[in-house]
Specification:
- By secondary structure, the chain is an alpha+beta fold.
- It starts with 34 loop residues before the first strand and ends with a strand.
Amino acid sequence: MTLPIDLDFEPMELVQVETIPQGPQWQYEPKWDGFRCMAFRDGEIVHLQSKAGQPLARYFPEIVEAVRALTPKQCVLDGELLVQLGNELSFDALLQRIHPAESRVKRLAKETPARYIVFDLLVDERGRGGTNVSATRSTASLRSGATCPTGRARVKAA
C-alpha cells in the first residue's frame, strides 16, 4: 500500500478522566458495542484491522466491499464494526463472525451483515493525513467525500 499511514498505526484511545471536559473544542463518541476497526483503502486493495492490529477483512467481506464502493479510491478510516439484530446491537452476533470456516463467515455475512460506523478520516482521497487535521474538518471531509451505495458503511454524525 502507498498510504501515508502504516498498517501499524495506533488509533486514538479512550482516556479516563474524573470529570467530563466541557467546551466547543470537545467531541464525544457513544460507547458502541462492537469492534474498533481501521480500514485502509488503496485502489482496489482494502485492509481491515482491529485496534490490536489483527486482520479483520476475512471475517467481514461485506465491509470490504462497502469500503471498496466508497467514492475515494484512497483513504484510511477509523470506526466501529457492529451487528444489529432487530432494534439492538448484538456483540454476541458480532463475535460469531470471527470463525475459521469461510463458508460460515459467508453465511453469517448474509444472515447478520455488519455495519461500519466511521468516526474519523485519517487519510483523505488526496493522500493527506488527517492526523494533523482538526476533527471538524475531518468530519466535513468524510461527509463530503464518502458515499457508499451498499449502505454498509455510514458516517456517524458528530
